[in-house]
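Model it.
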Amino acid sequence: MKSEEVLSSFEKTEYKKRCSMSRFLTVFLIIFTVSCSVSDEMCVENTDCPDGMECNPETGGCEEISGDTGNSGDSGDSGNSGDSGDSGDSGNTGDSGNTGNSGNTGNSGDTGNTGNTGNTGTDHVSPSIVSVSPAENEKDVALDKLLEITFSEPLDCPTITAEGVVTIDDSSITATCNDDDPVITFTQVWDSDSRYKVTVKGAVIKDKAGNVMNQSKNWYFETVDLTTPFVLKDESLPVGESVRTDKTIKIVFSEPVKPETVKISLNTVEVVQTMR
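Modeled.
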């Protein structure tokens, strides 16, 4: 009996030891687990923290990096240095350089070159005849055709309208001259079937600068023939007289005529005619 009680007491002691050990291990495991979980959040330096976190030395814990990012916002203040870009406004002072463009207004001074037209006083070119109408040797000129003489430049009118400067068949005429117009004119009704000679004297006609025309000009033209021809003389014998068979009949006209338009007949018989 006694030995069973001793064994029983030993077993109880062992059982208690085991129970104590088991409790110790359980408590150790709990403490270890807690310490491990805590150690994951505890840190000494930033390398102890996961990515995107840093160690806070005051709390010994890992924290998200955010506050310092705000500091980088201070770098945004450096963006204020962009205000120094306002100095670029001083570049507007360059706009005052545009005032220099007003210097171009000085170019309008070139208009003063127009004063060179005053060089008209230095014109040494003599006037000349450019064209005439009726033209030289023109025929069948209308009886009311205007006489026109075109010069190379406007003339000093008194020098062209003076007596004897322009003549027709050596008779002086007074032509019409207008300032700034290089054309002088003369109106006359011409005779039919007539030949005219026009003369313009040189050495007296001047332009507005006083230059004298050196050339003289003569030319001729003929007007249209509007006069009907007529018989001036009939050299045939008086009516009723006998004549020789070889007698020549002669008729004289007032002007030359076209042979094919003349018809002569004796007793209604057409005869051969000779024109000379």
